[in-house]
Specification:
It is an enzyme of class 2 (transferase). One of its GO terms (molecular function) is glycosyltransferase activity. Its EC number is 2.4.-.-. This protein is α/β, with parallel strands linked by helices. It folds into 2 domains: 179 residues, 3-Layer(aba) Sandwich (Rossmann fold), CATH 3.40.50.2000; 161 residues, Glycogen Phosphorylase B (Rossmann fold). Strands 3-2-1-4-5-6-7 form a 7-stranded parallel β-sheet, sandwiched between helices. Helix 7 packs across helix 12 and helix 10 packs across helix 13. The radius of gyration is 21 Å and the shape is globular. The protein starts with a strand and ends in a 7-residue tail after the last helix.
Length: 363
């Protein structure tokens, strides 16, 4: 079994972390694999164990034929059984399918479904590309249901498969005050403003805490609006905006709790990483988050956009640090047992065998 992954960049993001996690897991299992990055390597590239398995195309635009021919040469040399295309890399992957018809093409759709996505990003063009896609994997069940309803493929060719984390847990660093981590790129749907408003409510009560908002500046205007909001609300000693970091393992060791404040999600890898790191968590009730947390058994759930509810949940953790620590430990056990790399690989192998009659084995 030979697997070629294709993704646009390795800038910090959920799909990108999954591509890296899969590459590292395949490497550890001695499954021949390569990871082709269309545009730029980004910060996450340094996390890949086998650097020789990574190829960068330097793609400048959709019609960059020089980069596409480079991709074609890589595929010709590697001879994959599976082409696993993440998110928007499916467009070039379909182009490859015309040339390498024997390889099975999997599209891994990481986008969470919401009314906003359906209206503003319906991706109608995928309908005519569907005949060349052999299987669709989605990061949450609602996205799988959406594509079944849209008749993109038959229901048995659209599979939900939960993301998984890959993290080297580091020794906890003692914090001066209770510190929250919100690990998400800066985009409006990630809920940074809701978290800032919740922090204002906590600040007004006199509680001592910090909230670290860490992510890539995907939307510069959103970043600047968040920065201005922090300044206007007098939160400079409580809320901190930080650019994306590759050393997520170290970042997790420097905080006391993890937050997901998104308006929509698939299955955020950050939530799973919080679990591996043993952090207590608060999450909005979106995507697969309530499933991961088993409707509140392993963490607090609040409604998206509910700054008051988020503030109340944060206050609860601050006021009960030992209870919070114990909650994080239970969550850690749950993630290791139900969402770890071995669990993902078992399900992935089953999908390959059921759909393509191919075993995920070493060559």
């Amino acid at each position: 079994m030979r697997i070629l992954q294709l993704i646009d960049t390795l800038d910090p993001g959920g799909a990108e972390r999954m591509a890296v996690n899969m590459a590292n897991t395949f490497h550890e299992m001695q499954i021949p694999n390569c990871l082709v990055v269309s545009r730029s390597q980004g910060q996450l590239g340094s996390l890949i164990i086998d650097q020789n398995s990574v190829s960068i195309l330097g793609k400048r635009n959709t019609l960059d034929l020089k980069a596409f021919w480079k991709l074609r040469a890589i595929v010709q040399k590697f001879k994959p059984d599976i082409i696993h295309a993440h998110s928007t890399s499916i467009y070039w992957a379909v182009g490859l399918k015309f040339i390498f018809s024997k390889a099975k093409l999997i599209w891994h759709d990481h986008l969470g479904i919401s009314e906003d996505v359906i209206i503003n990003n319906p991706r109608h063009e995928l309908k005519w590309m569907a005949p060349w896609i052999d299987l669709v994997i989605t990061a949450n069940e609602s996205t799988a249901d959406f594509w079944v309803d849209q008749k993109l493929k038959s229901a048995d060719k659209i599979q939900y498969l939960a993301n998984f984390p890959y993290l080297k847990v580091k020794k906890k660093v003692k914090t001066d005050v209770f510190t929250f981590l919100h690990l998400a790129n800066f985009r409006s749907e990630k809920g940074q403003k809701t978290l800032i408003l919740a922090s204002k409510r906590l600040s007004d009560t006199g509680l001592k805490f910090k909230a670290r908002l860490v992510g890539k500046k995907v939307d510069i205007d959103w970043w600047e609006a968040c920065s201005q909001m922090i300044s206007e609300l007098g939160l400079a000693t409580h809320v901190f905006l930080e650019e994306a970091r590759a050393d997520v393992d170290q970042l997790m060791a420097e905080v006391d709790a993890g937050l997901v404040a998104s308006d929509r999600e698939g299955l955020p890898v950050a939530l799973l990483e919080y679990g591996l790191a043993g952090l207590p968590v608060i999450s909005t009730n979106v995507g697969q988050c309530p499933t991961v947390l088993e409707k509140g058994k392993y963490g607090e759930l609040v409604n998206p956009g509910d700054a008051i509810g988020l503030a109340d949940a944060m206050e609860k953790l601050i006021a009960n640090p030992q209870t919070a620590k114990e909650s994080g430990q239970r969550f850690q056990t749950h993630i290791n047992e139900s969402y770890g790399a071995s669990f993902f690989i078992e399900k992935y192998a089953d999908i390959l065998e059921r759909n393509f009659h191919q075993k995920l084995t070493q060559n």
